[in-house]
Amino acid sequence: MWYVYILRSLAAPEHEYVGFTSDLRRRLRDHNSGKSKHTAKYKPWNIVWYCAYRDKQKALDFERYLKSHSGRAFSKKRLD
Fold first, then answer.
1. CA 11, CA 38: separation in Å to the nearest integer?
2. What CATH number is given to the structural domain containing 61?
């Protein structure tokens, strides 16, 4: 399975991060241990939403959409 996820910083709740992985638990540990330069500054993180896909390309496409302007608006309105 492939996962698209949204994290929210516990230290700075106005900061969110959208990502993609095949191992959601490991990826959250990586974010919280500072292994990702994009999220290290605002750790710790909590998963606020995720979705599982069987098709890798569909997951990548949805991650790309969520990172777009309209995708951010969609996530704020529908996924929060």
1. 15
2. 3.40.1440
